[in-house]
Amino acid sequence: MSVQQLSEQEIIRREKLQKLRAAGIDPYPAPLFPVTHYSEDIKKNFSEETKDQFAEVSVAGRIMSINDKGKVFFIKIQDKQGIFQLYVKRDELYPGEDKSEWDTLVKHGLDLGDFIGASGYVFITKTGETSLHTKQLTLLAKSLKPLPVVKRDEQGNVFDEVTDPEFRYRQRYADLVINPSVKEVFVKRTKMINSIREFLNERGALEVDTPVLQSIPGGAAARPFITHHNALDIPFYLRIANELYLKRLIVGGFDWVYEFSRNFRNEGMDRTHNPEFTVLEFYVAYKDYFWMMETTEQLLEKVALDVNGTTDVTVGDNTISFKAPFPRVSIYDAIKEHTGIDISNMDEAALRKVCNDLGIHVDNTMGKGKLVDKIFGEKCEHHYIQPTFIIDYPVEMSPLTKKHRSKAGLVERFELMVNGKEIANAYSELNDPLEQRERFEEQAKLLERGDEEAMYIDYDFLRALEYGMPPTAGIGFGIDRLCMLMTNQSSIQDVLFFPQMRPEKMD
């Protein structure tokens, strides 16, 4: 059992807590506090002409600075919009002879990080700062742990953020308080998702939910997380993709369905991979992958405009344009361009030799599809900075994709590459149940060879296809990676509120 080791500051704050309670001041009161205004709205709208509208104002927030002038305190609080100053004068807050509560609460009881509420009227100080002339002050929540110290300018804005990733990712709640730019990333993430929803809903798509716990982990080539269903006494898997369930809904008669899906893959972690991640998938009846490329261009153009006000997005040292149209390059042409080798007619043995010649590590569990994927991933992918559709993959790489209408051995598939990474994967969906069964059986052989990412045979999905699925186009977007692009973040951990980390040692 761990014993909590308190710092000197934490001990002092707990002592203040007890003194407040002893004086009859509740440090965690139950009643609501009637907030009427927020910081930026006040600053934007207050003037000599509008001052009557700000004669009775109530604000609340976390204390970010305290300037003790004796009988006057200047306290800056942070609310959902920003920083706002309170002018707190002892003799106005406590006009009587008894000043004991001033001493207990304001003079000696308040700390940085505490939540307070204040009521009064808005005015402009001699230094020109819009402030609240406080008539009433209420402690709303006592902070027992001090926030990390950051440097702020005279307006209270942070100019020297805390950058330690161990602290920032593990204690995101504190990171959000002291690093305002972090909050803006997540506000943009929500804008991005709302923009996508708006695009799809306006076109008649239906948002749906599909199971997270699945008896067969289907829809992607990935290693699943395994759990156990006690009531049924059988293994279950956290979903690696929602594709097969969404296509079941196309079988059932919906023409366009979509889902923002939390997926789980029991694989490595790096700057662009997290075991738990968000994917948008949508499926549209009577369409193909050419239509899906055009729709993807339209969607991303809108998202960039809605989030950043421009189709040109800064990502590191690059300016990336989401202005349609995007180039289209076949995967074989991409490999030939960047390696000088034409692999279009090679069998598995020849591909394995190419990998060895190029210094690409492979093992005996990998079939033809995995070998092509490794070559492209290590030798080509990073070259595609501007949005580019990589199209027409070999059939071995795409067990759920319809064969190409005119190119033997290929399928109608594209991946969208941006800034050297895949952010979307799409197909003309395979809707021939007999061929789909054959593809699943090929995947089963790879499982027997030891490929933990090969697909299982989903017999229920095959049964659904046997009822008939219309021609369909489908796509999956990596929402976290797309958010990285739209917010200029280099690590997926920076666009996840609570990224996975090793358990903390609580000594």
TrEMBL record:
Reactions that this protein is recorded to catalyse: tRNA(Lys) + L-lysine + ATP = L-lysyl-tRNA(Lys) + AMP + diphosphate
Pfam family, one: tRNA_anti-codon
UniProt-listed PROSITE patterns: AA_TRNA_LIGASE_II (PS50862)
Enzyme class: ligase
Domain Aminoacyl-transfer RNA synthetases class-II family profile: 189-503
Alphabetical list of InterPro entries matching this protein: Aa-tRNA-synt_II, aa-tRNA-synth_II, aa-tRNA-synth_II/BPL/LPL, Lys-tRNA-ligase_II, Lys-tRNA-ligase_II_N, Lys-tRNA-synth_II_C, NA-bd_OB-fold, NA-bd_OB_tRNA
Family membership: Belongs to the class-II aminoacyl-tRNA synthetase family.
SUBUNIT field: Homodimer.
Listed name of the protein: Lysine--tRNA ligase
